[in-house]
Amino acid sequence: MIRMFCHYLMRRNPMSQEDEVKRLAEIRDILEERVRNLEIELEGLRAVLKFVNEILLEKSFKRPELPEPARLETKPPTSQLKTITGEVLAEVYEEEDSMRVTLSRDKEFNINTPPFRSFLLDRVLVKMREKDQEAVEKGELLPDKAFSYEVRLDGDLIREIVLKNVTPERRRELKSAIRWTLEKMFEKMKG
């Protein structure tokens, strides 16, 4: 590319202005096509990088998951999520960077009851995961430190929400969002 431009400059003198404009237009077209090709290649590389990061994220969480449930089962709940009237909605088990929210067995929280999907999943949990995934792609966060979640079901009934890589800043926000969601779902179940 640079050689072609240098060659153009060296041959510049004998050209008429019209030929010079034509030559510059040709060079511009070549440069624009090259830029388009590089952008396509860059887009492809970003897609491959995203794919590799997703695989790393998936694989990095499978290893430590095995011993955790037994360790978490033995500990008493850290706190409870309750309605304004004191009705227990769930028990929260907190570890250093994880949370496990076990929903009350005497209540049947269906995954299809609003606002579980529309609010808690889409606006809170998915957004947190996407934000961390972007940080991973930019190299600002290690894949095994990115926020992740799992909703454990029994048919359509929600039994547990497992949250991993929960930062202290997010802990209160998550508890509040989950409590609000469960309270709204409970109101719909009663009424």
Q: What characteristics describe this protein?
A:
single chain, 191 residues, alpha+beta, 2 domains, five-stranded antiparallel beta sheet, 5 helices, 5 strands
Structure in words:
- Strands 1-2-3-5-4 form a five-stranded antiparallel sheet, covered by helices on one side.
- The protein has two domains: 2-63, no CATH class; 68-190, no CATH class.
- Mean pLDDT is 83; it is low at 62-74.
- α4 runs antiparallel to α5 (168-190).
- The chain is 58% helix and 17% strand.
- By secondary structure, it is an alpha+beta fold.
Brief summary of the model shown:
With 191 residues, this protein is α+β, with helices and mostly antiparallel strands. The protein contains 5 helices and 5 strands, in the order αααβββαββα. A 5-stranded antiparallel β-sheet has the order 1-2-3-5-4, with helices on one face.
Blueprint of the fold:
Blueprint: H1 2-10, H2 17-65, H3 68-74, E1 79-82, E2 88-94, E3 98-103, H4 116-137, E4 148-154, E5 157-164, H5 168-190
Antiparallel strand pairs: 1-2, 2-3, 3-5, 4-5
Overall 3D shape? elongated
Number of helices: 5
Largest sheet: 5 strands, antiparallel
Write the element-wise H/E pattern from the N-terminal end onward.
HHHEEEHEEH
Q: How many β-strand runs?
A: 5
Structural class: alpha+beta
